[in-house]
Structure formats: structure tokens, C-alpha cells
Amino acid sequence: MAVPGLEIPEIEPTAPWEGPNRPLPQPAFPKGGPMIDQLMQQMVNSFLIGSVYALVAIGLTLIWGVMNVINFAHGDFLMIGMFVSFWLYTLYGIDPLFSIPACAAILFVLGLLIYRFIVSKVMTGPVLAQLVVTFGVSIFLANFAVMLWTPDFRLIEKPLLSGTWSLGTVQLSIPKFAASVGSVLVSLGLFLFLRKSKTGKAILAVEMNRDSALLVGINTDRINSLSFAIGSALVGIAGAFLSMYYYIYPQVGGLFGTISFCIVALGGFGSIEGAFIAGILIGFVQTLGGYFFDPAYKYAIVFMVYLLTVWIRPKGLLGW
Q1: Phi and psi of 164, rounded to 5°?
Q2: Which of 26, 83, 140, 306 has the least CB density, counted as fewest CB within 10 Å?
Q3: Is residue 14 packed enough to be buried (19+ CB in 10 Å), middle (13-18) or exposed (0-12)?
Q4: 285 falls within a domain
């Protein structure tokens, strides 16, 4: 009801960002904000995948350091290990965690046989023959796997270790964490074996100087076969770890094999410690590169870092 002579002044509405109730300015990177949380998540993911990369690369650098032979079939040995774990789970219900000894034993024997009947025949031949023979083994294993198991993608759907742990704002995948811890423990075990055991010291002696090792009575051919078998067993163990959460198919070894070559060159050919450090670094480069730029470019960033490193230091980080 209007009252004569009484005028009510109009009040202009105040914007939410003006006046006494305006929100206080926030720092560009608030503590515990979304960006920091995501960065912490990516760093955890980097270490989880990097430690598995390191285990794969250690097997490759052991073969290279002792025999001076590049094993192009290394990634395909990983694929065999993943399929061994998959079929043990599918046919007999053995979880990938418990199939690790079987994967290691089968790949150890496979590596021993391939060295004895194929690789050893070209050890005294030209370098090109050594390259071609392992490349031929790689092609054979990949195509043989396609013939046996088809190129379909497979996955172990319900492993014993599954789900995630919530550590504050960081989500920790249980199978990836188990694979990472297992890879670190196996790498440490190999390091202790090489440094403390008589056989391990013989392997290191052949790696450092083959002629001197022959002079002191070390059977270098036996060391070659043992090193090739151990390197194959290591990548078989890595395959069992990866089968807990990664897709399994005949061409899966191609990507891991290529990355392991980059890691070996980055860490230094023949250096176990260098391969482990470089594997962790490549995990960080791949994950953080995909986070800050674009996931489609993460592998390109990995190879770019590798090229820059060998350009600056061709011997790698810890190469001789």
C-alpha cells in the first residue's frame, strides 16, 4: 500500500564479487588444491610404472653387458611371461602373484635353449648376424603367439590383488603397487646376487673384461648362457607383474621392448644401477609429460629425452 509523500529509495543490486561479502582472493596454487593433488597422483603413478620398466631393462642390460649382443626378442619374452601367467590363471586358477616362480622358470629355460641352439651359433660371427638372429627370434615368437592365441586382447579380470587404497587425495592402485614393490625387490636381489655370490662375480668379471676372465679360468660360454637365461627370467617376472593389470596380447612386447632399449642406452649399456635409475626417470618423463602436455605425446617426449641424453652423454648416465 503506497503512503503519500513517502519515497523509498531504489537500491541497486550488489554483484556477488563486490561489497562486504565479496570472497577473499585465493592464491594461484592453493595448498592441497586440485592441481597439487593431481601432481602428487601423477608422481606416484610415475614411480609405479618406472620401477617395472627398470626390471624389464635390467634383464636387457645384463645380456648386453655380458655378451655384447642386443636381444631384439626381449619384449617378446615379456609377452610370453604375460601369457604364461594368464593361462595359469585361466586354466588352473593360479593367481599371477603365485605364478611368478613358474614364469621365471619357464623363461629361464626358454632363454637357455634359445642361446644354446640359436644365439651361440653366431657369437663369433659378424655383428649383423647377431642382430638379425635375435630380430628373427622376435618375429617368430610374435607370430607364433598370434597363431596359438589369436591377436585378441585379454585381461585377468579378478586377480587376488585388486582395487585401490586411498591415501588422502592420492589413489594407489593395489596391483600396480604390488608390481612396483616386487620389481624393486627383484632388482635388489639381482644386485646382491651379482655382488655377493661367486657366480655373480664371474658374470661381472666377464662383463668388465672377457679376455681377462678367460685368463683366470672363467668359462665365458657358460656365463653367456647363464646371463641370457637370467635376463629372460627377469623379464618373465616382469610379465607376471604386468599381467595383474595390463592387457595381454601378442604385440604387447613391442612397446615395452622399445622403451627398455631407451632405458638401457640412457642408463649406460651394461650398467645394472644405471638401468634401474633410468627406468624410474623414464617413468616420470612419460607420466608427467603426458600430464603437462598431452597423453598422445608422452612416448614422443620419452624418445626426445633419450635422444638429448645420448647426444650430450653417449655413454649414458652410468656407462663406462
Answers
A1: -135, 155
A2: 26
A3: exposed
A4: no
